[in-house]
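User: ok so my PI wants both of these folded by tonight, can you help

Assistant: No problem, let's get them done. Here's the first:
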Amino acid sequence: MHAGSLSLDAFLSRRSAERRLARLTHDVGLPEGRGLEFGAASNSTPLPEGLRVTYLDHAVDAAAVHPDAVQADYAWSGSTSLAERIGRTDYDFAIAVHAAHRVPNLLGWFRGIHAVLRPGGVLNLSLPDRRYTSDVSRRESTIAELVEADLLAYEQPSPRQIFAHTYETRTVDPAAVWEGTDVSQARRLFAESALPLAHARAAEALASKHHAACHCWVFTPLSFLTVIEEATRLGRFPFVFNQIAGTDPGGHEFFVSMRRDVQEDQQVLRPMQEGSIQYLRAILDRQRRIAELVARD
């Protein structure tokens, strides 16, 4: 268990000046509380000293390559019970910065976090926007892929996930994309060796059961809402959305805030879930139309 390193005043000042920090700490109660942070590595979220934080990663030594990294308190990959792993179900918040897209079983991961938050607790996360990252040439993840990973309870990235990540990764500069660079011409990160290397890495991971680092999931803000809406209709996604912030100009990530609602009755909860998604989809659609109009001027 680690405590935040900033004074409350310093944190509030910094959050008021940094929109990214404000999004990652949306609805996080102050001045005290208990929370989780996933995949913090060498870039943990700056938090006030009154917040007690437990750190998790896919392995307890996952951050060891970073000399100043936060050491994970627990290892958890998403397909087993998080409540049994950490022994608590009363957390006030969870934060995941560029962690969710690396989780082999995303739906299981969401349900595991939901189970350890108190009613009213929030999960705030950031995800890379495929259009402005090395995943630019990859197709967006589908509900079929999420369901497969959930039914098979993936604990390590699958051969398909590893193969796609290795073979299709491109060299992309987000700033250049925003300036109009044709990303279809971006070269593969591993050039001519990409295809055999992808096969070799997938085969090696399958044989060793090693948790190979890769981008298991690929989204844009709208595609993420779409697959989550489908998962909600299947009863495989338990959260209610609070907000979604699309990718800022020049940026490469979007932000999502969701909550474990105090309402547990599915007949009441499901319309709330679907209504929040429809509302946020309308906001993203409006933002997209405005951006297109501005681009024409």
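One down. Here's the second:
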Amino acid sequence: MAVTAVIQHHVADYKVWRKAYDGFGDVQKAGGVTRQSVYRAADDPNKVLIMHGFATPAEAEKFLAGAELRDAMQQAGVQGQPRVEIYQDA
């Protein structure tokens, strides 16, 4: 059963964040990310929505709880606590 993690957060500067996000692809792949998409809010270009696919909820939870991701998000300028939700295909 496929799983989708939905992450929403605000960043200080989208261009800086996007460069860091794009440079994190190998870590995502190693962490079990099977698909990804990124969206920006129409009314705030620094509000970002990310959707990552995983094979299992356990893979998603492990990746999202990892110190490497947390450090990368901090360095990329993520502000505040991200909103994270995990969904399974129905």
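The radius of gyration is 12 Å. The helical segments are 14-22, 25-30, 57-64, 67-76. Good luck tonight!
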